[in-house]
Amino acid sequence: MAAAKNDGRVLALIPVLVGVLLAAVIFPREAAPADVPLPVLDVHALIAIEHADEARAARATATPLAPEVRMLGEAIRAFNTTEAKDPPNAPWPDLRQGVDSARKLALEKGLDSIVELRAVQLQKFLDEVHAWRKTGAVSAELDAVGGSFLRRMTMAGWLKDNKLALADRELRVAYKLKWNAVARLEDFAEMKPTLDEMRALYTFYLLHPHAAESARETLAAARKTAHSKQDCEALEVGEQIATEQWRLDKIDKLAALDPAYPADYARGVSLYRAAKFDASAHAFEAWLRFHPDGPLTLRARNHLRAAMASSRIN
Fold first, then answer.
1. Environment class of residue 35 by beta-carbon count within 10 Å: exposed (0-12), middle (13-18) or buried (19+)?
2. pTM higher than 0.90, yes or no?
């Protein structure tokens, strides 16, 4: 009889427990955001693009490109080599003119040949980065195809103790963008990385943010005169804010490229991390206004409550 009574009590508690669990799931609670959402990648599409680039490089190696196209490649190599060495009296106008003149002649042979040229230099760049990862030695060929790549990676904080944060997938996209910029071919649709390629690169950006170069210089100068614990803590806060400002810029640029990316939600997270709680709350409100239901809705409500609470405290 006692056992039956206990069983009855347990059964009576089940609806109560279910109600408590449902309330925890349905009703918002304060929860500080932690991670910025990442774009959704089509890995199969990325693999197909990588294979296509490898096939272009192999084709151009087996059948030499037209002399005019190869001249563009040599002009870009000269530009990159000088950029890598960064001499005090570099002939930049001449180097720039060399690339521009070679580009005009190469375009007469068609964009397909130029895409193959880029694929060849992309493959050489990846091969040289792989060799550098193993030996730590910077070759003349890496300078010729990569320019100031290693220096820029160090300045961004993505290269430390000979360890590079970018994997091949991100390197491919970053290289295409840099190559296009040097050749001044960014406006040609055939030269632009695909949306999935850009999503892959922006995934890296969102996961590895850093303060902008001007902010890093300011912070570095301030650290030289910072002596107290309070000064050091203030600099840490300043770097966090500058880092999130850089990430916010990347969120805005990704949103312009990818309409499917949850930009307002991401802004809310980044602004919260920058201690801009009012702006964070507005961003989460904007997300909820257009997404009253969905996989991020409850999280957005929880983060909104946390942002509002932090705003009142501060």
1. exposed
2. no
